[in-house]
Design goal:
Strand 4 and strand 5 form a beta hairpin. A three-stranded mixed sheet has the order 1-5-4, with no helix packed on it. By secondary structure, it is mainly β. It is built from no helices and five strands.
């Protein structure tokens, strides 16, 4: 598998679901590129990669996740 991402999706913190999680496929992706929905943690390192299609999801520059207590 290539180390280059197929696509990069930059997200604002407010677009994340729960504590720093997003999902793939992303709602803006074309229907033909669909695969089973997987949840991707971007909180730990600021980005995560989809194991199915290789799309990288990352926080936009300067975005901060809210602290959870």
């Amino acid at each position: 598998m290539s180390s280059e991402p197929k696509a990069v999706v930059e997200l604002a913190a407010k677009e994340l679901m729960g504590p720093g999680v997003t999902h793939c496929p992303h709602p803006k992706m074309p229907l033909w590129s669909g695969h089973p929905r997987v949840f991707i943690d971007v909180a730990a390192t600021g980005e995560g990669r989809c194991p199915y299609c290789g799309t990288v999801y990352r926080l936009k520059a300067g975005e901060k996740l809210a602290a959870h207590h």
